[in-house]
């Protein structure tokens, strides 16, 4: 399974906030609607996120992490943390 940078940012944003609208995800992922929609479709197909629609006006579409999506998002955060620690360690040793 390969995830684009935008898809990774979507997963990490959803880890911080249980459910988000498409507009919130555009902002959180620093992307556009034209990039977000195919990314969401891919994440849905992979079983990492689900969509939920409100039944009353304004009938917003929410995106929610699945359990698998939470696991993947947590791993992404952990990988980032390790990479940052390695960078900090290298910069200290080269000083």
TrEMBL record:
**Transmembrane regions:** none
MF (Gene Ontology) = DNA-binding transcription factor activity
Write one Pfam family the protein is assigned to.
TrmB
Can you give the residue ranges of the HTH marR-type domain? 1-95
Q: Which organism is it from?
A: Sulfolobus acidocaldarius (strain ATCC 33909 / DSM 639 / JCM 8929 / NBRC 15157 / NCIMB 11770)
- Per its UniProt entry, which superkingdom is the organism in? Archaea
Q: What is this protein called?
A: Conserved conjugative plasmid protein
